[in-house]
Amino acid sequence: MKRSGRYDEFVTTHNAFIVSDTDDGERTGHRSPSFLPWHRRFLLEFERALQSVDASVALPYWDWSVDRSPRASLWAPDFLGGTGRERDGRVTDGPFSASSGNWPINVRVDGRTFLRRSLGAGGRQLPTPAEVESVLSISTYDMAPWNSASDGFRNHLEGWRGVNLHNRVHVWVGGQMATGVSPNDPVFWLHHAYIDKLWAEWQRRHPGSGYLPAAGTPDVIDLRETMRPWHDTSPADLLDHTAHYTFDA
């Protein structure tokens, strides 16, 4: 996928929505109720693209409330590789390091063409199980003003309010993960697969609390309104993940 350019198309799509999603205007992928269904569709598209190369592939998830250290197994040289070197963040081991020759960063926010990370720099900490539990206990999916100022489960999970789950993990990894071109780092998919799992867990715990808003809300995606860039899927179509996959615990 990387060699063909297909992988970089996912990076470009994500960055375009990071740039265009604003609190005071149209917002679809971020800062909005459709953050979760949009990324669920994004994950599905990516997994299907992987499976077009190797049908046996399924996306793993990273439970960062348990594997909270730069020494966790996913950062080993035989999986994602480790943190970046201090002077420029350059990842120097693993299959996605610049030295492997397989992972040039083509969709960039600056001139650096290598994968960068700074795992836990500055004493940053990943969310704890207790913090995850505090967000899962919120019973309302979302509420006005339907942006980064909203209360409710979605915004506390996305990380603009409260203990900050999703956003904090992006910043903890650092490098490209802390920018709009975050899918340049393959850990993006493991992170969002776990965010998706948390949404599924929240749905299980709160069966009477559905996606909001239902209809007639300007600038955000209502329950049965289709989402860009696909224009063929609404949040309602993605509420039940079991039509597409299950989570192996």
From TrEMBL:
Superkingdom assignment: Bacteria
Annotated Tyrosinase copper-binding domain residues: 30-47, 185-196
Gene source species: Streptomyces azureus
Keyword line: Copper, Metal-binding, Oxidoreductase
InterPro entries linked: Di-copper_centre_dom_sf (IPR008922), Tyrosinase/Hemocyanin (IPR050316), Tyrosinase_Cu-bd (IPR002227)
Protein name: Tyrosinase
PROSITE patterns to which the protein is assigned, alphabetical: TYROSINASE_1, TYROSINASE_2
Cofactor field: Cu(2+)
Family, similarity comment: Belongs to the tyrosinase family.
MF GO annotations: metal ion binding; oxidoreductase activity
